[in-house]
Write a structure and sequence with these properties.
The chain contains 10 helices and 4 strands. The protein has a 4-stranded mixed β-sheet, with helices on one face. Strand 3 and strand 4 form a beta hairpin. The longest helix is centred in the middle third of the chain and has 28 residues.
Length: 289
Amino acid sequence: MTDENAYTPPKVWQWEQENGGEFASTNRPIAGPTHVKELPVGDHPFQLYSLATPNGVKVNVMFEELLAAGHGAEYDAWLIRIGKGDQFGSGFVDVNPNSKIPALMDHTGDKPVRIFESGAILLHLAEKFDAFLGTPEERPEMLSWLFWQMGSAPYLGGGFGHFYHYSPHRMEYPIDRFTMETKRQLDVLDRRLEGREWIAADSYTIADIAIWAWYGQLVLGRLYDAAEFLDVESYKNVMAWAKRIDARPTVQRGRMVNRASGDPAMQLHERHSAADFETKTQDKLEAAE
């Protein structure tokens, strides 16, 4: 019997049309800028260009944690609207040639330094301030879990999230395939957290921050409208850990930075000082544009 929906790949693939879905207009098989646009620069040593996706939230939370711990990590956070293609502006591409958020410029040294990829930014800041790394003996375990997240999340976001939530067509095979992998990853975390407060060490580390931004928010029902579908309540250790981190004021602030969708009370389009969480002056200015 012939499958009428079977697809035979051509010998050489060519980009002929958008592939559909919410972010189709920003997907393309080539890199580089599409337009000339310089990035704004504020007064603080760190300039963050981002959006409050899970990868963006990681870095926002890290900055708020560092500031709460008394480190000199003041930062300006500028909104990059990926749906509008801001990530393809020439200035952003200069900071991140991969055109993905978040991207960071560190002006604390003699010369500005660019850092891209969320895991690299977390590690750069943790090493700079010697914070949230665990003990020297715990660091190999912490790094293992940090890189576990970086390698695993594409299956959750680009795999499960895309086919379950964003794809214009619901297809059983990819949804089943990536649901299976997502639940396997949740089981990995649930087993790891049995009898433990934190993922990688006896203290809260950048591994917790990185993993929570994806898997913590997933089980708390904030990603892909998929909590019931994935039966997240069955991962009791992950759920307890996720709620523990979610209760931190630093995490609540980090979730707000560069958020431009959802509950308006949780949106802080730009962040230039701690006072912005109260006044949201820049949001009012942006709304008037």
